[in-house]
Amino acid sequence: MPIVFVSVPDPVGSGFVESLAQPGGNATGFIMFEYGLSAKWLELLKEIAPSVTRAAVLRDPAIVAGIGQFAVIQSAAPSVGVDVSAINMRDGAEIERAVTAFARRPNGGLILAASALAAIHRDLVVSLAARYKLPAVYITRYFVAGGGLVSYGPDFVDQYRRAAEYVDRILKGEKPADLPVQAPTKYELVINLKTAKALGLEIPPTLLARADEVIE
User: Fold this and answer.
1) DSSP-derived secondary structure for 15-66
2) What pLDDT is stored for residue 13 in this prediction?
């Protein structure tokens, strides 16, 4: 049975397909984003909160994507002058302990890497960031709509539209093995000005001009 997947972080690393260009089996679809996007979260954190010199990356260490995203962020850290560390997300109690300990020192910020656990614990992470006045960067709009500071990531609704096109092509006779796995083509920057004000942050006008949505 043919499979068209959507928002899979690393289909090659996870063993779902042989390669992005030539899936080679009965599955194809759309990746969540390329790992290079992870570095932009760190750059965005530094741009929106220049005083940040430490960043904790909340990630799921049990999945390939959790390791890959952190590796990219870590490699980009020296260029922006930020020291990064990992917080492993296994359960809510562990997250709260780790963020509380991280917040004891000044000039910190958070990056919530993409994973199923990020969605599960989103309210906890947003509330901890507010409690300890930590600027935080997220992957998608619903974190910011729920009180988060800023998000940058792919337009997931657009991925489902594109997936429907693949389903149509397969139903008309094409094989998944011949349809390359594709990366997102649309990305969104969303900023919550109310949260920025609560954190005492002045959002640069150039960043506001780039935003796809500003929540006031």
Assistant:
1) TS-S-SS---SSEEEEES--TTHHHHHHHHHHHH-TT--EEEEEE-TTSHHH
2) 83
Partners of 136 in the beta sheet? 110
Q: Which of 136, 125, 134, 112 is nearest to 191 (CA)?
A: 136
Q: Where are the alpha helices (DSSP H) in the chain?
A: 37-48, 64-80, 92-102, 116-120, 122-131, 141-145, 156-171, 193-198, 205-210
Cβ atoms 152, 139 nearer than 8 A: yes
Encode pLDDT of 120-129 as tens digits.
999 999 999 9
Collapsing DSSP to helix, strand or coil, 209 comes out as helix
Q: Provide the whole-model pTM.
A: 0.89
Q: What are the beta bridge partners of residue 191?
A: 150, 214
Cα dihedral: 87, 90, 94, 95 (round 10): 50
Phi-psi region of 213 (alpha: psi -120 to 50; beta: other; left: phi over 0): beta
For the chain, the residue count is: 216
Three-state SS at 85 = strand
For the record, the structure tokens of 210 come out as: 């780039």
Dihedral of alpha carbons 63, 67, 68, 69, sign: positive
Task: Tell me the average pLDDT of the chain.
Answer: 94
Rg over CA atoms, the chain: 18
For residues 143 and 83, the answer to whether their CB atoms sit within 8 Å is: no
